[in-house]
Amino acid sequence: FTSVFISFLMIYLVLCVLFGALLLWAGNAEPNCIVASGEPFGKSDNPKTAWSDAFALSWTTFTTVGYGMTYTTTASDFNGTKPHECSWVVFLSTTE
Q1: Which of 31, 35, 23 shows the shortest CA–CA distance to 74?
Q2: How far apart are CA 70 and CA 56, in angstroms?
Q3: Is the pLDDT score of 62 beyond 70?
Q4: What is the mean pLDDT of the segment spanning 1-12?
Q5: CB-side exposure of 93: number of CA atoms within 13 Å?
Q6: How far, in Å, CA of 32 to CA of 27, rounded?
Q7: Residues 6+ positions from 59 with CB-CB distance below 8 Å
Q8: I need a surface site. Which of 30, 39, 61, 66 has the fewest CB within 10 A?
Q9: Average pLDDT over residues 9-34
């Protein structure tokens, strides 16, 4: 049982880190497509939180816990961001 649990845990962590890195890349390319603490991705008071925001979005999407302070943008966020502008973020979140 322990080896199975450790195996699943490692797979989970690797996938979260992988998708976190991809979401970090997509968030830097399209910052208005990810909301982190009510602001566009990477535009908070501390720009060093971009990785933690991307990882938080990754594990909440992967576990289907639900979005908290970091989520994909909607049309009502940031002056009506158009859906086609967020294609990579939506694709990654859907794939995960």
Answers
A1: 35
A2: 7
A3: yes
A4: 92
A5: 21
A6: 8
A7: 16, 20, 65
A8: 66
A9: 87
- Alpha-helical (H) ranges within the chain are 2-29, 50-63, 87-95
Bridge partners of 88, per DSSP, are none
Phi, psi for 43 (deg, rounded to 5): -105, 15
What single string gives the DSSP state of each residue in 24-51?
HHHHHHSGGGEEETTEETT-SS-GGGHH
**Separation CA 13–CA 19 (nearest Å):** 10
Which two structure tokens, joined as six digits, stand for 49? 């939180």
- What is the distance between the alpha carbons of residues 34 and 40, in angstroms, rounded to a whole number? 6
